[in-house]
Design goal:
309 residues, Neuraminidase
Length: 309
């Protein structure tokens, strides 16, 4: 049975209190970046402190697919079936194609290397947004200790079809930008930081405007606890499920806190998947777990294309 650190009546419409977490894989050092692929019903995730990538299926369980992994962190499935990966070691966002080839999507801004891209999302038209905190330059645990070159931690856009990375927020907007997710209609982009979540309106050309505080007080920096705001996803109703202090925070589109699902480990990231799309896959410190919900994730605005040859 799940334990809610906070819960409203509306939370029962999203999650049956009788549900419980199920551990599907364990023995890791710090899991991150879960990606569900509906084509083969698999989950890909990173163990960033072990510089490894894993793949899980219900039939085979978890198996190692890459080590070293250039300390890949956040990932997302591209609309063409490719895998977009944020790499701490190379300070790059990389696209890995199903046929085994790869290409660099972004690695610098105005001639200076990026810090260490952390999380990434793709809009239905192919535009790519990613956060760029400097965690991957701190030490060898989640990166490689090296000089801080860029001088700020930003959020960037690579337009559909490619091109130079464009800064889409003010340089002073965030301390350490981290997780990102779109509203179901892609009109709002949510971005979290050490304290909470900010919301931005997305224009047709991909630029962001109207930045505003969406929810705050969610991190260790506010009240001591386990974890700062990190990975997040929108459900089909537009609610935001964000890993943060103490567990998974569920917040309505209005900004109202609906509930906090307590976890006994630091919770880093999550995604929906499963045959009916209502299984929440949750990356915690040493385990990957599932939790059945009464809602699915926000639908992709465009169906995935078939695998490349």
């Amino acid at each position: 049975m799940v334990h809610l650190l906070h819960g409203s009546d509306a939370m029962a419409q999203l999650l049956d209190p009788a549900e419980a977490f199920t551990v599907i894989a364990s023995g890791f050092r710090f899991t991150e970046g879960p990606v569900w692929d509906p084509r083969d019903e698999s989950l890909t995730f990173s163990d960033i402190r072990d510089d490894a990538r894993w793949r899980w299926t219900a039939d085979e369980g978890a198996r190692l697919v890459a080590r070293p992994n250039r300390i890949g962190n956040g990932m997302t499935l591209g609309r063409d079936g490719s895998l977009l990966v944020c790499e701490h070691v190379t300070s790059s966002v990389v696209r890995e194609h199903p046929n085994g080839t790869s290409e660099i999507v972004a690695f610098h801004f105005d001639g200076t290397y990026l810090n260490s891209p952390n999380d990434v999302v793709e809009r239905s038209d192919g535009a790519i947004y990613f956060s760029d905190p400097d965690y991957g330059r701190w030490d060898h645990v989640v990166g490689i200790a090296r000089k801080f070159e860029l001088g700020f931690q930003g959020v960037f856009l690579v337009p559909a079809g490619g091109g130079p990375a464009q800064l889409v927020v003010e340089r002073t907007e965030f301390d350490q930008p981290n997780g990102l997710c779109f509203s179901p209609d892609e009109s709002v982009l949510y971005i979290d930081d050490l304290h909470g979540i900010r919301a931005f309106d997305v224009t047709d050309d991909g630029t962001l405007s109207g930045g505003r505080t969406f929810h705050t007080g969610m991190g260790d920096t506010d009240i001591p606890g386990r974890g700062n705001p990190d990975g997040m996803r929108c459900d089909e109703l537009g609610n935001i499920w964000c890993t943060a202090r103490g567990g998974i925070w569920v917040i309505a589109p209005s900004g109202e806190l609906l509930g906090i699902v307590e976890t006994d480990e630091t919770c880093a990231n999550l995604t929906w998947g499963g045959t009916d799309g209502r299984t929440l896959f949750v990356c915690m410190s040493t385990t990957v777990r599932t939790l059945r919900t009464r809602v699915s994730g926000a639908p992709r605005a465009r169906a995935l294309a078939g695998p490349e040859s």
